[in-house]
Amino acid sequence: MFGVWIGKLVLLLLSMLRKRATSLPGKIALKVSPRLLRKLGTQLERCIVVTGTNGKTTTARLLAAAMKQEDPIIHNTEGANLPQGLATALLRHTSWFGRLRRKTALFEIDEATLPLVAETLPIKVAVVTNVFRDQLDRYGELDTTVEKLLAGLRKTDAVAILNADDPLARHIGLSYGKTVLYFGMSKEHLKQEHRDQMRDGAFCMQCGHELQYDGFYYGQLGDYHCPNCDFFRPVPDFVGHFQESRLEVTQGQLPPVSFQLPVRGIFNVYNALSAIAAARVCGLDASVIQQGLRQYQPPLGRMQAFPTRPHTVLNLIKNPTGCDSVLQAIHSEPGDKVLCIAINDLAADGKDVSWLWDADFELITEDDSVVKCVTTGLRAEDMALRLKYGGYPESNLSYVPELEAGLDHALELARASGDVPVYVLSTYTALYPLADLLKRRAHNNEPAAMYRPSVS
Amino acid sequence: MNRPLCIAHLYPDLLNLYADKGNILTLKRRLEWRGLEAQVTLVTSSEEARPGDYDLVLLGGGSDREQEIVSRTLRRSRDEWKAAVEDGLPLLAVCGGYQLLGEYYQLPDGTKVPGLELLDMVTVAGSPRLIGNVAIESDECGTIVGFENHGGRTTHHHAPLGKVISGHGNNGTDGHEGVRYKNVFGTYIHGPLLPKNPALADFILQTALDYAGIDVKLEPLDDELEKAARTAFQVRRMNLSEVAAQTP
Ligand SMILES: [Zn+2]
């Protein structure tokens, strides 16, 4: 009880100070009463979780948009996916007497956090978006991520909703031992060429043999099978077929249902497909899901546009696969552009920046339309070095470690290049400061003073 | 015109955990910038690697499972590798690849995954993982900086690549990091290793050029950006003073 009070007090205080409170109240409350999650979690009737490497936030928000059409839900927003983030979301809907006012929770949960909290929540449905390489210094190696996800799932009786096109997810499905449903893309979307060398799932986890692919969707996602044992891509229970901004989903023998996609890029099509699959498993009608998707607001830093001068588009990058999706999206935008890449290496970003060398920045360095590149953040120089060795001309490359100065330098260069758009790429801890700066630049809608020292 | 330097990247399909692509790219570019050519061969796990075909070999890092596969594949031509190393084949081995050079890697359950037995060296899995930014002092190449992330504790009786200034090194206890034997460079440092350590990159390249019989002395390059990245790393991440950080 004391934990609830403390947590709610901190929430109240922070909201009075108009501060973002996605984790701190939960963190303090959990310190005071470590069993808080269990105490509140047991009052829930059902909990739906979204986990996996990439696309957690978007998938959870798409699903939330649909579920909110039926009932109010508890939902942790903006990637606060560690125990303190879950606790904060629950505290928001807890009375001063410790009673939970809403009965359904939809949580985006970090892969390493899942085994820690799985027992404390009545998890009925668990979506695993995909299993890519992410933040190696936190989890050790990739196989550990698979183990963490499995350990977490095994502590539940959830229906697992997994990506059929991802061999690592298939391995999880085979090892889970309880109900599993798969979503996957229609084979018409398979591509033969495979640009990136991200081969996280290229080996059979059952026997160690190299997997064979009859085509790829992106990254390790594709139509795979093991030539040495009986490991293969399962037939998905939910098959997605997309065309421009529409996604058609076929569920078993049922007639296909068409959805308007509020998001772009193949990685987001997967996010939408898994969200629709989960919504169907939760018992929602197609019409309710369609309505939810129409009301969807894209989250911070996912091709998020700001009306600055010239205009800016903010993107979160945090691992090679996610970064490649963003680079592909930017690469496919017509016209000249300026890039501003902010790399921090704080705990929430991952302290190891070696992933920058696995990401396909050659998409940018070989693209003549990227006229200037500014790197910024605590690892601005490392990022600049990555671009230099990637073949980007040093004369068009500059590094300005301080965020505000770096951003303003990019805006200045973009204005000088004829008001071309600026694509801002940022790791997690630089994202909010950059979004705040962009909001202010958009508000003033005029060139900012150059190199003003930051007060943050 | 000199013949190109033949560089082999062993098993990028298996050992690709720690941005080894960055190390290869650095070797290639630093030759190109001096008007020299590199011919990089990606040797995948389905092919047999012949040490005699190359002037420089890079062996990267992978997960335990993948390392086991590599060990099995390489051990088939173990004698050939041993002879080549004794003969001075330049070999850069990072993380998992570094561990493979030794006698064995002992897993947490006690199983010993046999290594290539090229060096008098053993690795034992330990807990916790040794993770973080690292800086070492090498006699040949000055300060080497990067990131380490390994569960294994490695001990050997050869010379280290360098002495630990900050970080864990081979085993977190003896103050040594990596190994130097003949023309073998073994290390836990990725980050990746070579872009931010141009002196080491050039030292390895010169060793390989000499071994290949290509008569070239590498001239210094304009490493302004490399130096800036090193200085920033040492000041922001190692808490070393700016003055100390500037020495090569
Ligand atoms: Zn198999």
Can you tell me about this structure?
The complex is a heterodimer of chains A (456) and B (248). With 456 residues, chain A is of the alpha/beta class. Chain A folds into 2 domains: 2-294, UDP-N-acetylmuramoyl-L-alanine:D-glutamate ligase (3-Layer(aba) Sandwich); 304-444, Protein-Tyrosine Phosphatase, Chain A. Chain A has helices at 2-16, 24-32, 36-41, 56-67, 83-92, 114-117, 136-139, 142-154, 167-176, 266-281, 286-294, 320-331, 362-365, 380-389, 403-416, 428-444; strands at 46-51, 74-75, 104-108, 123-128, 159-163, 180-185, 212-218, 221-225, 238-243, 246-251, 257-260, 304-306, 312-316, 337-342, 370-376, 397-399, 422-426. In chain A, helix 4 packs across helix 11. The model of chain A is unreliable at 135-139 and 447-456 (pLDDT under 50). Mean pLDDT of chain B is 90; it is low at 241-248. In chain B, a hairpin with a 3-residue loop joins strand 7 and strand 8 (142-156). Chain B contains 7 helices and 12 strands. Chain B has helices at 20-32, 64-75, 78-86, 96-100, 198-212, 224-237, 242-246, and strands at residues 5-10, 38-43, 56-59, 91-94, 104-106, 112-114, 121-138, 142-156, 162-166, 176-177, 179-181, 184-187. Chain B has 248 residues and is α/β, with parallel strands linked by helices. In chain B, helix 1 (20-32) packs across helix 5. At the A-B interface, helix 14 of A face helix 1, helix 2, strand 7, strand 8 and helix 6 of B. The complex binds zinc ion (ZN). Zinc ion (ZN) binds at residues 204, 206-207, 209, 226, 228-229, 231 of chain A.
